[in-house]
Structures are given as structure tokens and as C-alpha cells.
């Protein structure tokens, strides 16, 4: 490629901003109607413009539109094609408008749709988590700290932790939606426009909540994209943590779950393998989601007001995050629906370690021993048991009593189930608290999309 081609390609954005065609056309139709209502252009011109734009939309959707990269972007491609189709009236469409407020409008419209789709996808994932929790309310597993078995918990309690993380994500995406929901047309290149515009009409036509309050801010603000990209990064981090657990849990070492064959693949050389590729790829994609946030933050950081062409670089990363996040959430919703639990293995893991140590110490406290002393007694006890490979439930009361005279037969009734159910505080892992949490979660989901 010669320098001439390289440099003419350099400024072209058509290959990625083509996807804004629908927003661009809807925005132009509302603008043309407003211009006619305000007697800035003739009604007959507006009618010709609207018909021409509708034809262009059809042509694009049936792959008949003659895309021309030499016209740089989606806005010029549509406007110049409109001129070919309807002639002179097309020259009036761009009255009282600049590509600066036009692209801001298109991106806000696109962002709002993507945010609604993201919220729907999160909603679906939350349902899958709550259903998995509800179908397995009696399954006990070891809870971990430092990736060491710590205390028994209900599997459902663990799933509801993710339900809440995704709920916070929803509330962040809802806030991003509110900030995107501002109609910038009427700002012109930067200073507003010397025409009697009816900005409220355009706002209503396009379904925005508010109009922008400062033309300079309106053409240079990309915060609404950063809101989305940062909420998306936090959400991707949640997905990645969950993915990591699914990878661990489906390994032979844990063997807690089985992922559906739909979401594992074999190895080309090791016939026994069922690799959790979907979870791994989701974990891996978190990197590009973070990258797109840092990319746009960096693009923005040195820009003087108002519009600078750098802003054209806001699109590819944003589209990439949308194209990454929504399918990931959709896949996870189905992967969660289709995974099965190895209940006996989960219970064995909860029983086959010293996860009841805290409960035995708490029991001594209930018998009148100060906690720190109880901690020391049970610590010696578990250490000696682990040296001989024995478990708490194998000890007799007489053996217990050699560690403290305060032990009586109550200690023999401490089990993983009693441990779980003792934690009957709001937010705790007892069956009662978790059933209540499931009911609250379902109620929230039934009431709709809000965080
Ligand atoms: N393709 C441009 C963008 O995405 C449209 C706005 C162009 N404005 C301008 N003054 N050159 O930002």
C-alpha cells in the first residue's frame, strides 16, 4: 500500500461506525421533522428526506446499500446517498446540525440500547443463580478463606453472593443509563445554533429523558461511555471470579460440579479431558474489557474542550466491550442452568476436614470458657487429630474431656448441618436465612430490572 492509500484510510471510521446506521437515521428523521415544524425547511422537503432515509434503512438492512469508505463515516455515507436518491432537499438536512452533536446523539442512542440489553442479560444470569440456589437448598460445602477450607456453608449461600454482585452491577448500569439518557442535538459544532429549534420535540421523538444543558459539554462529553466501561469492568471482574471457581470446582482435585458438555471441550490429544473452555475464555476476556476502559480514559485525558477528532477513537473499544460482555453474561446464564452438583463430594469435603473447629470453640464458650482459651484448646486438639489422621466425629466424649473438663455430650451433636444452622443471623448461612434470602431475591427479580 502506498502512502496515499495509507493516509486516506487513516481517518476512515466507516468499517466500525456503520453499526450506528439505525440511530443515525432515526436522529435525522426527528431532526428533519423538527426543522419543518419550526418552518426552518419546507414540509415537502422534510417528507422527501424522511422517505429517502427510510429507503436507505431498508437498503442497508437488505445489504443493498453502496458503502463508500471514501466518504469516511456513517454520517457522510447516509447524507451523500440521500442526495443521490432525492436530490436537492437532502442538502437541507444538515441545517442547524453538526456532525459533532450528531455523533454524540448516535452514540447516546446506541449506548442506551446496549445498556438495556446488558441489564436483560444480567437479569437472566441472576435468575439462573437463584434457581440453582433454590434447587440445592440442603447442599453443604466447605466455605473457604485463603483457599483453605474454613467453615461449612450452604452451596446456595455461595450462589447468592454472586447474585448480589450482579445486582450491584445492575445498579451501576442503571446509573449509566440515566447519564446516557440526555439528548445533545441542538448543540451544533460547539456553541449552540442560530435557529429557533424545538429541542424538546426532538427529545420526545427519540425517547430521551432530558436535553443537554451546555452545548460545549454536550459535544465533548464521553462520560456516559466511561460509566458503561467502568461498570462493565467491575461486572467482568465478577464474571472472572465466578469463572475461576467453576474452573477449580470442575477439576478432579475439587470435583464439586460437572459443567454441561455444551460448555466444555475435549483435548485434541488427551481423550479423557473435559476442559472448561467457556469459563476460561470469559476469565481471559476480562483483560480486554479492562483495556477498553483504560483506552478511553487515556484518549480523553489530554483533550481541551470541545470536540477533537481524537473522540472518533471512542467507538471500537466501546463496541468491543458490548460485544464481549453481553454474550458472556448470556452464556453464563445457560452454563449455570445446566451445571450439576456432586453433592456427596461437597459434603465429604465439608466433613473431611477441620471446618468444625470454630463451632467446637464456640461450644466451649457456651460452657463458660473465655474465647481465646477455647481457641487454644481446639487448636491443640485439631493439630493432634491431623497428625494422626483422625476427624472430630471419631472422638469419644472421654477423649474430648482430656482436653477440657468443660466438654460434655453436647459436643457430639456438632455436625456440619448444626454448624450451618447455628449461623442464623441475617446474612448468615443458616437454612432459614438462606431461604429468606432466596425469597427476597426472587421477589426482586419478579419486580423487574432495577439493581
Ligand atoms: N466520525 C466522527 C466521530 O466519530 C464524526 C464527527 C466528525 N466531526 C468532525 N468535526 N470532523 O467523531
Description:
- The protein has a two-stranded antiparallel sheet.
- 62% of the residues lie in helices and 5% in strands.
- With 451 residues, it is mostly helical.
- The mean pLDDT is 96.
- The protein has 3 domains: 12-97, Fumarase C, Chain B, domain 1 (Orthogonal Bundle); 100-186 and 199-342, Fumarase C, Chain A, domain 2; 349-430, Orthogonal Bundle (Ribonucleotide Reductase Protein R1, domain 1).
- The protein has helices at residues 3-10, 14-17, 21-37, 43-61, 74-86, 99-135, 155-180, 199-206, 215-220, 223-249, 277-300, 315-338, 343-351, 357-366, 371-388, 397-401, 416-422, 431-447, and strands at residues 140-145, 148-154, 182-183, 210-211, 257-258, 340-341.
- It binds arginine.
Tell me the CATH superfamily of the largest domain.
Answer: Fumarase/aspartase (Central domain)
Within the CATH hierarchy, at the fold level, what is the topology of the largest domain? Fumarase C, Chain A, domain 2
Instruction: Report on the biggest sheet.
Output: 2 strands, antiparallel
Oligomeric state of this protein: single chain
The gist of it:
This protein is mostly helical and 451 residues long.
What is the secondary structure topology, with strand pairs?
Blueprint: H1 3-10, H2 14-17, H3 21-37, H4 43-61, H5 74-86, H6 99-135, E1 140-145, E2 148-154, H7 155-180, E3 182-183, H8 199-206, E4 210-211, H9 215-220, H10 223-249, E5 257-258, H11 277-300, H12 315-338, E6 340-341, H13 343-351, H14 357-366, H15 371-388, H16 397-401, H17 416-422, H18 431-447
Parallel strand pairs: 3-4
Antiparallel strand pairs: 1-2, 5-6
Helix pairs in contact: 3-4, 3-6, 3-8, 4-5, 6-7, 6-12, 6-18, 7-10, 7-18, 10-11, 10-12, 11-12, 14-15
Amino acid at each position: 500500500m502506498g502512502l496515499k492509500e495509507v493516509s486516506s484510510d487513516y481517518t476512515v471510521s466507516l468499517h466500525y461506525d456503520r453499526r450506528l446506521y439505525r440511530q443515525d437515521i432515526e436522529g435525522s428523521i426527528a431532526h428533519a421533522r423538527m426543522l419543518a415544524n419550526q418552518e426552518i425547511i419546507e414540509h415537502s422537503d422534510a417528507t422527501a428526506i424522511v422517505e429517502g432515509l427510510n429507503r436507505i434503512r431498508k437498503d442497508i438492512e437488505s445489504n443493498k446499500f453502496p458503502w463508500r469508505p471514501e466518504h469516511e463515516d456513517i454520517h457522510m455515507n447516509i447524507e451523500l446517498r440521500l442526495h443521490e436518491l432525492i436530490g436537492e432537499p437532502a442538502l437541507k438536512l444538515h441545517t442547524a446540525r453538526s456532525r459533532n452533536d450528531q455523533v454524540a446523539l448516535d452514540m447516546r442512542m446506541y449506548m442506551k440500547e446496549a445498556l438495556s440489553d446488558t441489564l436483560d442479560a444480567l437479569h437472566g444470569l441472576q435468575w439462573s443463580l437463584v434457581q440453582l440456589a433454590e434447587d440445592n437448598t440442603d447442599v453443604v460445602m466447605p466455605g473457604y478463606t485463603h483457599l483453605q477450607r474454613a467453615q461449612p456453608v450452604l452451596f446456595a449461600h455461595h450462589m447468592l453472593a454472586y447474585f448480589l454482585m450482579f445486582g450491584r452491577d445492575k445498579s451501576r448500569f442503571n446509573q449509566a443509563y440515566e447519564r446516557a439518557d440526555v439528548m445533545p442535538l441542538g448543540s451544533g459544532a460547539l456553541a449552540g445554533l442560530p435557529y429557533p429549534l424545538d429541542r424538546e420535540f426532538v427529545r420526545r421523538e427519540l425517547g430521551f429523558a432530558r436535553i443537554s444543558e451546555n452545548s460545549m459539554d454536550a459535544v465533548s462529553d464521553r462520560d456516559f461511555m466511561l460509566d458503561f466501561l467502568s461498570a462493565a469492568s467491575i461486572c467482568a471482574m465478577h464474571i472472572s471470579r465466578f469463572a475461576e471457581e467453576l474452573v477449580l470446582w470442575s477439576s478432579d482435585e475439587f470435583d464439586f460440579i460437572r459443567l454441561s458438555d455444551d460448555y466444555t471441550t475435549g483435548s485434541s490429544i488427551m481423550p479423557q479431558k473435559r476442559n472448561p473452555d467457556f469459563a476460561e475464555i470469559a476469565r481471559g476476556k476480562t483483560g480486554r474489557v479492562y483495556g477498553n476502559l483504560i483506552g478511553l480514559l487515556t484518549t480523553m485525558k489530554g483533550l481541551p474542550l470541545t470536540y477533537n477528532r481524537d473522540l472518533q477513537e471512542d467507538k471500537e473499544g466501546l463496541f468491543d466491550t458490548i460485544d464481549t460482555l453481553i454474550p458472556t453474561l448470556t452464556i453464563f446464564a445457560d452454563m449455570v442452568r445446566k451445571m450439576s452438583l456432586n453433592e456427596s463430594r461437597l459434603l465429604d469435603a465439608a466433613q473431611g476436614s477441620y471446618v468444625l473447629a470454630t463451632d467446637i470453640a464456640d461450644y466451649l464458650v457456651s460452657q463458660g470458657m473465655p474465647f481465646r482459651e477455647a481457641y487454644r484448646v481446639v487448636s491443640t486438639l485439631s493439630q493432634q487429630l491431623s497428625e494422626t489422621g483422625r476427624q472430630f466425629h471419631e472422638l469419644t466424649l472421654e477423649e474430648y474431656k482430656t482436653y477440657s473438663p468443660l466438654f460434655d455430650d453436647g459436643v457430639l451433636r456438632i455436625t456440619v448441618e448444626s454448624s450451618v444452622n447455628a449461623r442464623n443471623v441475617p446474612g448468615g448461612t443458616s437454612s432459614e436465612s438462606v431461604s429468606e434470602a432466596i425469597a427476597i431475591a426472587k421477589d426482586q427479580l419478579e419486580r423487574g430490572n432495577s439493581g
